[in-house]
Write the structure tokens for this entry.
Amino acid sequence: MGNKVRVRYAPSPTGFLHIGGARSALFNYLYAKRNGGDFVFRIEDTDIERNVKGGEESQLNDLMWLGIVPDESPLNPNPKYAPYRQMERLEMYHKYAKWLIDQGYAYECYCSEEELDKSREEQYARGINAPKYDRHCLHLSEEEKEKYKKEGRKPCIRLKLEDHLTISFDDLIRGKVVFNNDDIGDWVIMKSNGIPTYNFAVVIDDHMMEITHVLRGEEHLSNTPKQIQLYKYFGWEVPTFGHMTIIVNENGKKLSKRDNNILQFMSQYRDLGYLPEAIFNFILLLGWTPNEEREIFTLEEAKEIFDPSRMSASPSMFDQRKLNWMNSQYIRKLSDEDYLSFIKPYLAKVIDLEKYSDEQLLFMANMFKSEIQYGAQIVDLLKPLFAYHLEENDEIKEILSLESTPKVLASFEEHLKTIDNLEIETVKQLFKDVGSETGIKGKALYMPIRLMLTGQMHGAELVNIIKLLGKEEAIKRLNK
Ligand code: GLU
């Protein structure tokens, strides 16, 4: 094996890019880049019933959106290692499975589901609470195999584990981890349909692709001794493993893909108007602690400072408020031009973009730039300005029935009619004039005008609203 660091992200194309997957990809990517290595994107599609159409494409697109660009992928293959989809590598797995059988490290198993169930039940009855395969087929004669075949049985292939073998490895995140083969049964490497299982294919791929480091989720920890047994049989160098902790919600519960309280897919965040830089930054801190106080890091900075020894071994909390805060920080930093193109799709949900100049759109969007935490929030903030609807509640009725209200509205309309430019300073002056003419101040002055113009008690700054609506529209609303 060469010395170059090579890592991979190997999703099953069963859906969109999930926050956990994005985190695995991100840490592998940073590890590679920090060490001048390659980041490989490979597809583990052997669980054919679970594959979804477009899964691979969307995973890849979402990664690139985050700025994580693979050095190799099905779209960008290195001929030395291709193909990058497991279902296109079946021949290779067959070859190695046969080799294992020839060496006596693996064997055909003809047991049916019913027979396996029965054996498990018997083991439970004997007080064994983690039943294993009973090795019924370990020493079948050729005649017995023939007999099974004639019955129409199709064999799978099982790995014969070395008995009593202790398997240990130094996990990058957890330190020394120890397993014993006696707790693991002879597991299936090839299903009877000729498709390899994950644990088998992954070892062959990682070896053939010269993968040096494997950073993946904690759920794969118990797979690692199975994989190391294979490396031993093949006489291959074992990569360095690091198992990242689970991600938990605010109640300390493991994030489940079915938990609807938390958005978990990159595409959902993108659609809502989260910036890739913010998501990247947020995920970076999900299980990794920098060696300094600050929390805002760009991808380029992270590449420079990423140090896997600072990855945490305790669960990482998914803190939605922190993500929102982070996103708002990134939104505020956008240039006018970038902000406008980022926000336009959301403005389009409220107004016809064609009817406004970019300058007007920017003015509108800037009214809320420091307020929004994600793009889609601007829709609700902007709507009242365009789809006027006066709510009928007691507080509103009270304000509108104040004795001073008709006087305020009349004076405001008078003054508004006399001015031609609605620049912020002019409008501010207008309020002062109305105030001194009527002798009314504060809430009794501003609220009736706000209500007449927007129908709502709260919202953007009144002077901005007036500038945005324009004189004609404002007068129209005052006369409603
Ligand atoms: N396809 C596996 C998964 O999506 C990858 C596991 C690994 O990285 O070895 O979890």
About this structure: The mean pLDDT is 94. The pocket of glutamic acid is lined by residues 10-12, 44, 202, 216, 220 (CB under 6 Å).
